[in-house]
């Protein structure tokens, strides 16, 4: 926190410090040294609430205290003598001691300390989990190099089997099978007819078997023609 603390005397009977007489080599910020010892008090009749809100937001963006915080700081400074105020301006250690005694600064320091403790606790917990993380990483490496490789090989084999099955049931493959069946039925019919001519088979048996073969042949032929028409 870097606040510019307005300093001025509180008792009217005490002479006000002449800040222009302070050496320019003072470590205190020039904006405080060169400013008036009496901060201007905004009038409710001349300043609108919107303007006061705008001034507060601009003050917060520059790291300055809010009006309520500044009022509390000023109350702390009112009881100080001129010598004490000049010492705050000239002596950095005295200023730091006064600055660190402010409630707002104490609150910020406590918050920073708590955040530091929480961060250290999280870091310790992460370090405690480092061994477990390393073990899990090694397990992942083993799975990747052994089990995963075997699973990928198995998957590739199944993919090949699927492709072969899909090819066997493709329209072109089915038409080829129908064509092969037609040729085979023709050959069987011809063999049966040859047996009948050679008197190796009686007429009723020949008619029954020949009729069955020719019906199957014509069925395959119709399916073949229908399939070719649908593929086109």
TrEMBL record:
GO CC terms: ESCRT I complex
Ranges annotated as biased composition (Polar residues): 9-28
Q: Which InterPro entries match?
A: ESCRT_assembly_dom, Helix_hairpin_bin_sf, Mod_r
Task: List this protein's GO terms for biological process.
Answer: protein transport
Q: Which domain of life is it from?
A: Eukaryota
UniProt keywords (A-Z) are: Coiled coil, Endosome, Protein transport, Transport
One protein family per Pfam: Mod_r
Low complexity bias: start-end ranges? 29-50
Q: Which residues form the VPS37 C-terminal domain?
A: 152-232
Coiled coil location: 108-195
* Major site of localization recorded for this protein: other
Q: Which PROSITE patterns match?
A: VPS37_C (PS51314)
Q: Where in the cell is it found?
A: Endosome
**Region annotation (Disordered) ranges:** 1-70
Q: Which PANTHER family match?
A: VACUOLAR PROTEIN SORTING-ASSOCIATED PROTEIN 37 (PTHR13678), VACUOLAR PROTEIN SORTING-ASSOCIATED PROTEIN 37A (PTHR13678:SF2)
* Subunit description: Component of the endosomal sorting required for transport complex I (ESCRT-I), composed of ELC, VPS28 and VPS37. Interacts with ELC.
Instruction: Give the UniProt family note.
Output: Belongs to the VPS37 family.
> What is the annotated role of this protein in its UniProt record?
Component of the ESCRT-I complex (endosomal sorting complex required for transport I), a regulator of vesicular trafficking process. Required for the sorting of endocytic ubiquitinated cargos into multivesicular bodies (MVBs).
Name assigned to this protein:
VPS37 C-terminal domain-containing protein
């Amino acid at each position: 926190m870097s606040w510019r603390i307005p300093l001025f005397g509180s008792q009217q009977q005490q002479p006000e410090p002449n800040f222009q007489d302070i050496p320019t080599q003072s470590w205190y910020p020039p904006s405080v040294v060169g400013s008036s010892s009496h901060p201007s008090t905004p009038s409710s009749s001349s300043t609108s609430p919107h303007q006061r809100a705008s001034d507060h937001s601009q003050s917060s963006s520059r790291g300055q205290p809010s009006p309520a915080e500044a009022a509390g700081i000023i109350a702390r400074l009112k009881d100080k003598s001129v010598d004490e105020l000049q010492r705050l301006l000239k002596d950095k250690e005295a200023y730091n001691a006064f600055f660190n005694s402010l409630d707002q600064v104490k609150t910020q320091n406590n918050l920073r300390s708590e955040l530091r403790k929480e961060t250290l606790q999280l870091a310790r917990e992460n370090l405690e989990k480092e061994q477990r993380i390393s073990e899990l990483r090694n397990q992942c490496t083993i799975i990747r190099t052994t089990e995963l490789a075997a699973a990928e090989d198995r998957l590739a084999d199944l993919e090949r089997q699927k492709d072969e099955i899909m090819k066997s049931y493709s329209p072109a493959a089915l038409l080829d099978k129908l064509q092969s069946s037609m040729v085979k039925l023709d050959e069987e019919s011809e063999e049966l007819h040859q047996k009948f001519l050679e008197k190796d088979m009686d007429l009723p048996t020949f008619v029954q078997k020949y009729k069955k073969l020719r019906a199957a042949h014509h069925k395959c032929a119709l399916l073949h023609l229908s399939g070719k028409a649908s593929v086109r």
